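INFO batch 0412 | record 1 of 1 | parsing
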Amino acid sequence: MNWTQAISQWRNLSATEKLRRRWEAIPVDVAQSMAFEREPVALSTLQELHARTTPPAILRPLAESSPTAT
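INFO prediction complete | emitting tokens
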């Protein structure tokens, strides 16, 4: 796959799928950024913190994100 095919595939994804992939990439992105700044942090630590963070409403099951859930 070349870069134009990768871009085409990304553009064909739904907005929800794009958001899900971005959300899941946060711990790795932060770890890379911290390493670049010469302040490395364990990826496992970031993944644990990320797992405790509430994802955007669009990524949560409907009942969980609804203010009127029963």
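INFO post-check: The chain has a mean pLDDT of 90.
INFO record closed
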